[in-house]
């Protein structure tokens, strides 16, 4: 992940995670001047309440695929095996 990706993801979702902040702080010594400005902007947005500290939920499509693979498909295979 890059700082630019983190910035866009945070703006898009309105959420920044604790892991994202930890990563940002770990990278702070290696940031160039432009990246430092982006990090400061993230901090200001967080202070203003435009970005919330929290967690990101997976998209509905990902949840549907996970449910399909972990719950629906195994049940279908079991029923098919019992019928045969």
Structure, explained:
The chain is mostly helical. It has helices at about 5-15, 20-25, 35-50, 60-84, and strands at about 15, 50-55. It has a two-stranded parallel sheet. It has two domains: about 1-55, no CATH class; about 55-84. Helix content is about 75%, strand content about 5%.
Topology:
Blueprint lengths: L2 H11 L1 E2 L1 H10 L5 H16 L3 E2 L6 H24 L1
Helix pairs in contact: 1-3
What is the number of E strands?
2
> Biggest sheet, in brief?
2 strands, parallel
Shape: elongated
Order of helices and strands: HEHHEH
Order of strands across the main sheet: 1-2
The helical percent reads: over 70%
- Overall pLDDT confidence: 82
Distance between the first and last residues' Cα: 49 Å
Number of domains: 2
The secondary structure category is mainly alpha
Q: Runs with pLDDT <50, length 5+?
A: none
Q: Using only CA atoms, what is the Rg?
A: 20 Å
- Total of DSSP H or I helical runs spanning 4+ residues: 4
Strand content: under 5%
Write a concise synopsis of the structure shown.
73% of the residues lie in helices and 5% in strands.
Main features:
84 residues, mainly alpha, 2 domains, two-stranded parallel sheet, 73% helix
């Amino acid at each position: 992940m890059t700082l630019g990706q983190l910035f866009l993801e945070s703006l898009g979702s309105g959420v920044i995670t604790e892991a994202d902040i930890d990563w940002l702080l770990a990278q702070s010594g290696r940031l160039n001047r432009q990246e430092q400005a982006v990090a400061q902007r993230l901090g200001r947005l967080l202070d203003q309440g435009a970005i919330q500290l929290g967690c990101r939920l997976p998209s509905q499509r990902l949840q549907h695929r996970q449910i399909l693979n972990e719950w629906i498909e195994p049940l279908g295979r079991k029923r098919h095996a019992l019928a045969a």
